[in-house]
């Protein structure tokens, strides 16, 4: 009976985690909202550079990285529900308040839509992952993929709500200025934040009800059941041992983490990934509308890309349970660099069929993004252990922040990066740099038949 109840709670916790992460995934709709926000400012004589909109993404990521270790530490003391309550109030509250700050200017909007939104979902991000994988110790990669898949699914819901509410008649942009100029459309932009804020809060209350912590007593019972020999309680699952991987019971504290070279390798890799992630998440629709005058199509492609982002996370998570993170990351960065290099040349490649090319490339790019966002926490847990994973991942994740801030500053300070070609070439170069660093990481769970990917000196103890 206890086992059945435990299984019931474990499934509900994962479902709750997916639901909560789905609301956090509203973050990915910044790219869909960017043209509306920029054109609203332009209409009300508050012009800003188009690339300045990347600050919304960069600041949100920055606050996420700041909040993540705080939320992780509080989770270990007060449990998952306390963390989710605080997270939800800040997150949905910031988006709701954007109704007022949008009318005041870009900086006030940056505070609510960037600072508050980012801190809100960052506060609960790693805690919901940690609370969910605690119930499924032998399928961590898959569970991480499912949970963060919820994050990727967020835009599927909220992009449709935004576009249907703001531009229900698919009004075209002005052919000369490439901006929306319809007054009714632009006047609906502020009120969409009230609608979204209310929807988010209702969904978050549902997820909160489903999530619960795994009690220590239950963990002991599970361990005794799965590993009947107490001397082997730190063994890896059979699938890991059958592939010839190295066993490890590493569990590093945050201060110990900073002494590991793998931490800095991983940090640089995530920094590099943060540059294309920030650029694509914010600017895909702005880039698309320079060649495609169809707002509804671009919104639909944002939804389809979000599906690839969401499903891709479960896909990459399942792969990590078989071969860990190192080999897939190499493949991801190689493919990412090729797609980014060719992305600005789609009009030349596809000509009149630009919509087809844009859709294929965007979905491919988001499928690869999903892999990076799965393997960042998976690599953190593999390299540094599961016990302090929530806090440790917060330290690793701040690399995304610096990557986003870096590309945001470049886009303002260097005029050449106002051009799409140069921006996407920079993103591709960062992927190549990451590709060169990944093989130097010591992935203990990687099957030994992938020896080609081992650039470090193997130690024997």
From TrEMBL:
The keyword Membrane applies. Keywords: Membrane, Transmembrane, Transmembrane helix, Transport. Pfam families: MFS_1. InterPro entries: MFS, MFS_Riboflavin_Transporter, MFS_trans_sf. GO terms for cellular component: membrane. It comes from the Eukaryota. It is found in: Membrane. The keyword Signal does not apply. The chain crosses the membrane at residues 12-33, 53-75, 82-100, 106-135, 142-161, 192-211, 263-284, 296-315, 327-346, 358-378, 390-417, 423-441. Gene3D superfamilies: MFS general substrate transporter like domains (1.20.1250.20). It is a multi-pass membrane protein. GO terms for molecular function: transmembrane transporter activity. This is Major facilitator superfamily (MFS) profile domain-containing protein. It comes from Schistosoma margrebowiei.
